[in-house]
Automatic annotation (TrEMBL):
Protein name per the record: Polyprenyl synthetase
Keyword tags: Plasmid
UniProt cross-references to InterPro entries, sorted A to Z: Isoprenoid_synthase_dom_sf
Length: 267
């Protein structure tokens, strides 16, 4: 198990790697990529990579883990931009998005490419397996966009297959780089997907009070149903976390996700 690092310290390290990945931000489309990444300063997914890794690793987190954290945050930015673009181009949706579609498309492509470049810089001997996990997330995102805006899949499934998929990939990449065995992979995948979906739903429900912009979901949704969906994911993720308590150092991860707790609504 690894020595503790504060969330603030780790966020600073992830931010520095993101700055390096986005150093060409003088170009307009790449400037949009940089501002999109900056619009999500919590580094939820990057922290999830590092904390999942720390839960089972025998050695302290290395530069490889921080590079992987940055990679997942870049893919998060890609997901946000693609979602905004598709909402903007959907004729049947009311929205306030007025950006240049061409710039959004180029910026999204840049973020997607930069995510793979950042992960490749990790240099870990489990890199190939981690790369496969990142590819799986990318494929899930593409399928989700197709399902939502071509076949009109429901909003809950869209959240599961976008933010949920990124969260699952973050946790799996973290334990993969730690040399994690497959017996624990399913539980880490469940907690990554569940907590991340619940986290995004919490942001959507609190948008009016905390300023969060719900760009990963359509602007119209059933509040009660969305809350129930988030609560179910939170319970499933919590159970998965509990199953890991005998074989992993889960307390830092538990403390991190407990920021989702709500005395009135359960998450």
């Amino acid at each position: 198990m690894t020595p503790s690092t504060t969330l603030l310290e780790r966020r600073g390290e992830i931010d520095r790697r993101l700055e390096t990945a986005l150093e060409r931000a003088d170009e307009h489309s790449v400037a949009l990529a940089a501002s999109t990444v900056d619009a999500c300063p919590d580094r939820w997914y990057g922290q999830l990579v590092a904390l999942s890794h720390a839960a089972i690793a025998d050695k302290p987190a290395s530069d490889a883990i921080l590079s992987a954290s940055a990679a997942v945050e870049l893919l998060r930015g890609y997901c946000r931009l693609r979602t905004e673009l598709l909402i903007q181009l959907a004729d049947n949706r009311a929205h306030s998005l007025t950006g240049d579609p061409a710039n959004a498309l180029l910026a999204g492509d840049y973020l997607n490419s930069a995510a793979y470049t950042a992960l490749a810089e990790a240099g870990n001997h489990h890199l190939e397996d981690a790369l496969q996990a990142l590819i799986a997330v990318s494929e899930s995102l593409v399928d989700a966009f197709d399902a939502k805006y071509v076949r009109s899949v429901d909003d809950h499934s869209f959240l599961d297959d976008t933010v949920g998929s990124i969260g699952e990939g973050a946790a799996v990449i973290g334990i993969t780089l730690a040399g994690g065995d497959t017996t624990r992979k399913e539980d880490f995948a469940t907690l990554g997907r569940g907590f991340s979906t619940a986290y995004q739903i919490r942001r959507i429900l609190n948008a009016d009070s905390d300023g969060a912009v719900p760009t990963i979901a359509p602007p119209r949704f059933d509040t009660a149903a969305l809350r129930q969906h988030g609560a179910r994911h939170f319970r499933e993720a919590t159970h998965a976390l509990g199953r890991l308590s005998d074989s992993a150092d889960i307390e830092p991860l538990r403390n991190f996700v407990n920021t989702l707790c709500d005395q009135d609504n359960g998450f």
